[in-house]
Design brief:
The chain is α+β, with helices and mostly antiparallel strands. Helix content is 53%, strand content 10%. It contains 20 helices and 10 strands. Helix 3 crosses helix 5, helix 8 packs antiparallel against helix 9 and helix 15 packs antiparallel against helix 16. The chain is globular, with a radius of gyration of 26 Å.
């Protein structure tokens, strides 16, 4: 959190704090650290950084005298894991710079006012803290979940309502006008069409997550006023109740509140009332066995499907580079995945073991193909310690590559120990994390 914002005592001069050289310099460093693609103007992060010495004073003057105008936003479409596409808005690097500068001033003001059950896009909070709170509710007997998913939330934020909510906490009207201009920036579609924006906060800019929390804080406060136990992460919200009847009642009343008060729509296909083990929340599902006080944390079915697909992508049948390069790519992904899913409980260890074995087998299949000719594979396996019979079976067997990848010659030449020295193991990583967590 930026000290400049926290120390700004004059609430009516927030624009001066945002446009100060020190705050702008820090904001640019944060934008550079986050990297990101160029916007409509084509300027890269490195190009803006290289011109920062001359750009900073000009940008400061434009902000203070009110002449700064945000550029257009480049729209890109990325595939969603569950199917369909999500639209991202990529502002120009200079506009991301300004958004980051404003964020650093507003976040210390707004962050303390948000509800404690909101975990998305907040300092020292995230998916792990959200799951920890959800586990507590399930463990206390709230065994029915009202799973609410907002339909195209970022595209449907009402600008005037957002600015009105901001105005209740931000005294400097010039900052509000600046944000209003950012919200109204035109969007350039992939085909070059420029589209006006009357609502929504495009995902892709540094300020968008904070603004989304400002909008949904009213939702959080309403849930709290009703005495409901909930966990929210961005536009995904789980409300915990004791019975299915109560869940249906809560779902109906919350749907009416969101539509009439916040002008937001509930995604009926993705929202439901169900038991925790049937809910996909942030890649996890919770389960409390009968006669047990412990709540298990599992990877969700959707997460399993994504992992299976990613393994196939990272270990393609026709890999033409070195095995070392393939293993390096896999390791990058597995380290990130393990960091996110290390909070799963021991009931998931078998699933991790299966994935580890499957990855090793797919890598052995790649090694078979890379040798191309049976006699090359036969010699290679013998050199790596396989018996003549085992090497011959692996090399000259008329069955397919997948069968041969698990044959004796391959498993002897490329034992599990060989992979353990080079390949990240999901099971071993989880055990290390669990061991360190228990010791702490």
């Amino acid at each position: 959190m930026n000290d400049l914002g926290a120390s700004a005592t004059d609430a009516s001069r927030l624009l001066e704090a945002a446009a100060s050289p020190a705050n702008l310099a820090t904001a640019l460093l944060n934008v550079v650290r986050n990297k990101g693609a160029p916007g409509v103007d084509g300027c890269s992060v490195d190009e803006v950084l290289g011109s920062a010495r001359s750009l900073l004073p000009r940008l400061q003057r434009a902000l203070l005298n009110g002449t700064y105008q945000p550029g257009d936003i480049r729209r890109v479409w990325i595939p969603k894991p569950g199917g369909g596409e999500r639209g991202l808005g990529i502002p120009n690097v200079i506009d991301r710079w300004v958004q980051q500068a404003v964020l650093q001033i507003l976040e210390p003001i707004l962050e303390p006012t948000f509800h404690s059950s909101s975990h998305g896009f907040r300092p020292k909070r995230g998916a792990h803290t959200a799951i920890a709170e959800a586990k507590e509710y399930v463990g206390n007997g709230y065994g029915i979940v009202v799973d609410i998913d907002l339909s195209k939330f970022f595209d449907r934020v009402h600008h005037q309502r957002l600015l009105s909510r901001l105005g209740q906490k931000v005294a400097d009207s010039r900052i509000l006008k600046l944000i209003g201009r950012m919200l109204k920036a035109k969007v350039v579609m992939p085909d070059g069409t420029r589209v006006s924006t009357d609502e929504g906060t495009p995902q892709g800019g540094p300020l968008s997550p904070l603004l989304s929390n400002v909008v949904l804080d009213e939702f959080d406060k309403e849930l709290s006023r009703r005495g409901l136990r909930f966990v929210r992460y961005a536009d995904d919200c789980n409300i915990f109740v004791r019975s299915e009847r109560a869940g249906r009642r809560v779902m109906d009343s919350i749907r009416r509140f969101l539509q009439s008060r916040l002008r937001l729509q509930v995604n009926e296909e993705k929202s439901k009332v169900a038991r925790p083990e049937e809910i996909h929340f942030l890649g996890f599902r919770l389960r409390k066995p009968a006669e047990s006080t412990k709540v298990e944390v599992h990877v969700s079915t959707r997460t399993k499907e994504r992992m299976d697909a990613k393994i196939r992508e990272l270990t393609p049948r026709m890999w033409g580079q070195s095995p070392t390069r393939c293993i390096e790519r896999i390791n990058v992904y597995l380290r990130g995945w393990s960091s996110s899913f290390r909070i799963c409980t021991k009931e998931n260890v078998h699933r991790l073991h299966v994935w580890d074995a499957h990855i090793r087998r797919r890598l052995r299949a790649i090694l078979v193909r890379l040798k191309k000719r049976p006699r090359y594979l036969f010699r290679h396996l013998q050199e790596r310690g396989a018996s003549v019979r085992g090497a011959a079976h692996s090399a000259y067997c008329r069955r397919g590559v997948w069968y041969r990848s698990n044959s004796v010659g391959m498993t002897v030449a490329y034992r599990n120990a060989w992979f353990h020295e080079r390949l990240v193991s999901l099971e071993s990583t989880w055990e290390r994390c669990d061991s360190s967590g228990s010791q702490s």
